[in-house]
Amino acid sequence: MPDFLTLIRYAVFGAFLLAAAAATASWLVRTRRISPFTPLGRGLKSLSDPLLKPVEARVYRAGGNPVNAGWWLVIGVAVLGVVALSVLQWLVA
Length: 93
Hints:
By secondary structure, the protein is mainly α. It has helices at about 5-30, 40-60, 70-90.
């Protein structure tokens, strides 16, 4: 049976992949590499918007460009994941 930290590492990696996929999907539709008027474009937009809208609002309030919200999401998930893993590893040890 895998230990607790290994499961948390997999969860953090999964969250990172989900954030990267959402950012990429949003970028593909926003730059019109995939038309936003096709079923694929609407589907990608409807799947990525729930993750990106709160980040876009926060970036906008901070004075940034909300177009970059997807990449801020990826960076935030990576940093918070590393911090969480470090704290958990410290607590276990």
